[in-house]
Design a protein that fits this description.
This protein is α+β, with helices and mostly antiparallel strands. It contains 2 helices and 5 strands.
């Protein structure tokens, strides 16, 4: 399905190729993750950690309970 100017294309209507020729605009893609605080949430069986990055955006990591515990222990050893 082609979306141009907020309207969905229909059968028998203009094709994506003809719309591109006419200069129709396509909807913009949303970024996968935005800037934000450090977050850790439980989602289903996994634990999802979102870490803000210096240049913008966030690193998203999914861990199981064992991995999260090991990460916590490693961080405690480094921080003190």
């Amino acid at each position: 399905m082609v979306v141009a100017n907020g309207a969905a294309g229909s059968l028998g209507g203009p094709t994506a190729h003809s719309q591109a020729k006419e200069g129709a605009r396509m909807a913009a893609m949303k970024p996968r993750t935005g800037d934000g605080p450090l977050e850790v949430t439980k989602e289903g069986r996994g634990i999802v950690m979102r870490v803000p990055l210096e240049g913008g955006g966030r690193l998203v990591v999914e861990l199981n309970a064992e991995e999260a515990g090991a990460l916590g222990d490693a961080l405690k050893d480094v921080v003190g």
